Every structure is written in C-alpha cells, then in structure tokens.
C-alpha cells in the first residue's frame, strides 16, 4: 500500500519512522511518503492560506495550492499502481493474451475535519484494502470546501473526524489513520493472532482485561483462572469479561450486537 500525507508540518509525521510502522516502511510493506504542501506554492512567502469569503475569524487553506499538490501525488500513485497488471503470455510467446478485467486501483482521499464522519476500526479495515491513501492535513479554519467536492467526482473521498473535539491540525488524525491501517496490512504485526480478539473487532466487543508477571503486584493477584492451565475455563472467563466490560463501558456497542451471533459465539466457548 502507498500512503501520501500532505501537511505544512512534515516533521509532525517523523514518528512514523518508529516502531511497527517504521519497520513496515523499512521492510517495504508500506510505501509512506510525507510531503510539504508549501512545495506547491509559487510565491515568495510560500502562502497556503487566505482570508475567508464572507468574513469571519481565521484563515482558510487555498484550493489552488491543494489542487496542484493532490493532482501530483495522485498521479504518482497511479503510475506506481497500474490499472491492468502486465500479464505474460501463457505459452511464453510475445503475443500478450487479452488483458484481464483487473479492478482499477483503489485510491482514497481522506480529509480530516471535526465535521467529518467518525473514524472507526471498521473504516480502518476497509481502508487497509486500498492501493493508495492520500491524507490532506488541514490547518487554520480548514481547507476550502471545494477541494473535497472536486475530488469526489474522480475518486473516493472521506471527510473523517477523530472525535467531537477540535485539534489545531490534521496531522494527529493522519498519525492515527496510518497507525490503525498499517497494523492491519499483511506482515506488519508479527503474530496476526493478536488482531483476532482485539477491541472493536469482529466480535463487536471490548477486549477482556490482560495480565502478566508478577502474579501478585501491589497486593493485587492475577485472577486465579488465568493460572489454572484450563484453556476452556480461561476462554469462558475472557468471554464473560469482554461482555461485562462492554456492557458497563459501552452500552452503545452492546445495542449494536446481533443477539443470534452473540448466542452462537457463547455456545462455541
Ligand atoms: N474551523 C474548523 C471547524 O470548526 O470545524 C476547525 C479547523 S481545525 C482548527 C484545523 C484542522 O484540524 C482541520 O482542518 C482538520 O484537519 C484538523 N482537525 C481538527 N479537529 C479534528 C478532528 N476532531 N478530527 C479530525 N481532524 C481534525
């Protein structure tokens, strides 16, 4: 997967050289590029913003600068992921067989904004199947609304929010999206089993509480069942804990569960 992040503060994204995302980049599992939006400006002051039409406080990011930058990174992504993969002739001859009806590469423009759709694990899972993600990090009062409108005509565009609060810029949202998506790419997490029982996964529950050594710390003992060696009992306990925790902390998630699927999963434990 290729991910392009456009920002006026590229250094904000330096953390993406660290930990699992950094390793995924070094291992060639993720082609992540961070671009300085100001590289697409043409004036001496490298201006990316201007006053809002209609008046009011603050500045708005200019659509012409964003348009040039986005056109360039999308074109670079298109060149990197051709729509029809070259297919060798089955008999080894030079005559190419009819081109397979390959799906065109999926390119997605993500525009972080507090007025967007809430970013979720389900969205991260969906985006992990894309060929290119482009993240447009806004600053000031945000990006001129015509930018999302313009690209919606040509590709998939999602305006996404991290939550109901206002940040100074979209860079933190870009970090969140890259981390949430990258860890789902094949080979990024050493043991893919770690992804199975996680919170917000297929079961629609929060994860059960986890413990490690020492068995007693600060007067608190690890629940006895976890040291019993009885795998059936451990599985039952974890399932009950996940259900209880979800009911207590996130009743909204419980309301979304399918009772039949819930019963089936419970019988299987
Ligand atoms: N004037 C905008 C509003 O009230 O909706 C807020 C702009 S905010 C100060 C500047 C930038 O921060 C936004 O363009 C967006 O990129 C980012 N941002 C702020 N809050 C966010 C959130 N909750 N989720 C995602 N991005 C956010």
Automatic annotation (TrEMBL):
Coiled coil: none
Keywords, alphabetical: Cytoplasm, Methyltransferase, S-adenosyl-L-methionine, Transferase, tRNA processing
Region (Disordered) residue spans: 81-104
EC nos: 2.1.1.228
A GO molecular-function annotation: tRNA (guanine(37)-N1)-methyltransferase activity
Protein residues bound to S-adenosyl-L-methionine: 138, 162-167
GO CC terms: cytosol
Keyword hit for Transferase: yes
Protein's cellular compartments: Cytoplasm
Chief location of this protein within or outside the cell: cytoplasm
Domain of life: Bacteria
Catalytic activities: guanosine(37) in tRNA + S-adenosyl-L-methionine = N(1)-methylguanosine(37) in tRNA + S-adenosyl-L-homocysteine + H(+)
GO biological process, one term: tRNA N1-guanine methylation
Compositional bias per record (Low complexity), positions renumbered to this chain: 90-104
Family named by the database record: Belongs to the RNA methyltransferase TrmD family.
Function, as annotated: Specifically methylates guanosine-37 in various tRNAs.
Subunit structure: Homodimer.
Protein's UniProt name: tRNA (guanine-N(1)-)-methyltransferase
Organism name: Georgenia ruanii
Organism placement in taxonomy: Bacteria, Bacillati, Actinomycetota, Actinomycetes, Micrococcales
Gene it is expressed from: trmD
